[in-house]
Amino acid sequence: MKNMQPGQVTPLNIEYKAVIQNKIDQKTKPLGSLGQLEQVALQLALIQSQKQRILVDKVSISKPTVIIFAGDHGISEQGVSIAPSAVTRQMVLNFLAGGAAINCFCRSNNIDFKVVDTGIIDPIAKRHKNLINYRLGAGTKNFANQSAMTEIQVEQGLSYGKQTIEPLINSDCSVLLLGEMGIGNTSSAAAILSALTKEPVELCVGIGTGINQEQLTLKKQLITQALARFDSSDPKTILKEVGGFEITQMTGAIIAAAQAGIAILIDGFIVSTAALLAVRMAPNVRDYLIFAHQSEESGHQLLLKTLDAKPLLNLGLRLGEGTGAALALPLLHAAAHFYNDMASFKSAGVTV
Question: pTM for this one?
Answer without folding.
Answer: 0.95
